[in-house]
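U., I forgot to send this yesterday:
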Amino acid sequence: MTWNTKNRDRDIEKAENNIFDLVIIGGGITGAGVAREAALRGLTFCMLDKNDFAFGTSSRSSKLVHGGLRYLANAKFKLVRESTTERNWLRNHFPNLVRPLGFMYCSYVKGKDKPFMVKFAITLYNVFSDWFSEYKNFRKGRFLKPQNVRDLEPAVTVEDNELGKLVMAGFYYDNNVDDSRLTIETIKESLLYSEGNSVALNYAKVEGYLRNADGKIKGVKVKNIQSGDSFEVKCSAVVSCTGIWTDELMKETQNYEDKIYPTKGVHVVVPNERIGNRNAFGIRSFDDGRFFFILRRGKVSVIGTTDTDYYKESKNLDEPWCTKEDCDYLFNTVNRLFPQAKLTYNDIIGTYAGIRPLIKQSGAKSESEVSREHEILESPDGLVAIAGGKLTTYRAMAEEVLFHLVKRNFIPAFRESKFSKKGFSRIPFINGITWESFEKELIEKSLQHVSTTEQREVFYHQYGKQGINILENIKQHPDAGLPLIDGYTYCRAEIEHLLEHENVLHLVDIMCRRTEAQWTVWHFKQEQLASLVAEIMAGYLSWSDSYKQQEMIDYMNYIKKTIWF
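Result:
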């Protein structure tokens, strides 16, 4: 599917001249999920986002598709069951993107997590995950003695430390994912299922609502951020999937009270060799007992996340940043559990920060205790919104939105009874492929030697079946497969693929969301890589020299805000 900014005017014209079943405000993972649910049922949609797709929380998470082991401590059994069910479906039906990751959950003599708690949690996690489930987890969780932990993870302390000796550990599996890529792939799939009858526009800001004679919302007023022009889109129902911006959108309706409690989470990325973890770790902060992760992501480890009241720091929801204090909080615990690491600011490859759109609730003693469950809201004048939730459960959340719209008569009853079946959309992703099938196709097309092994693996993991298209380009144009900078796989063929098929408008879109370059490439190499990517974009999008320079300035200003030292 060709989906790029060269067709933007055509897409805006289509948005203006059609009446859609749905207008979806927000191009994050929840909005993408609603689009997919709609398209699979033959409904049309117009998706609008004031920034890029996955601009907010959907590109700034812990990059996990997981069941939420720690939620068991708060008796969120329904949430864990739903999360593990969705996790298992995604891993089975999008195997190149959703990849198993082992987690170590350690119990120390003086630690908060006692052996019986670890054993109970892992056992219960196994039950919720696999019993009466169509799709199973990668492997069941198990228990390890100190010697087993030492063998598997020699870098972590198992002898006497501030928490005493290691007593035992639980070992279980969840999954890595590129959150923004999952969002983009879901949108692309939605457009494919819509067969040209739907539209997805980034940099298109909703600035007001259209109402019928009864005062009900039946469309939106939109500003094209790129040109400054305005246009209108008509529909049967408007759904807000704007996450942390939900209150902002809902305030334009009738009798609305704020619902969102935004909490900030930061992640610090360091070379994996500096910590030495072979798997992921769930650990508790020495400062306040909060649970956070050390996540193995190939050559890097991602440390996070924090959980702080964002409004105590800033009111600007568009620009959360990792601060020195955030980093110190994370490093303090990591350096004490992994004594050989001795992490300093010089080890930081990059950082990123996001804001969780949690639902306000009474009785929560801390940010970490606020529920990750979602809620559907509806204004008297007919704006439907969904807020809260988590990345892993996006499909279930989106399905619930569609059922709500039918129940409330915003859209007609589904044409076919199967569309009303819960879990109907748990089908394989079009672009999903196993490594065995990927390798087989490479051999059939004589593509197995046109690039390095590392590059082929990256194309498989990130692009699935479309990775084969990138390799075919490289076969025809070998220079297009050469690394743009030493030590990384990014190449011209990959950037050209993104420009042609993934609706890229700005340099920051590629560096932060279409790829993971912003936080996987050393901050001092960002300018070198970005300048080469900008050169490719300038040729494809006919940028002037001054426009290209401004794109570079904007992106490097972004990078400078992620690095405070």
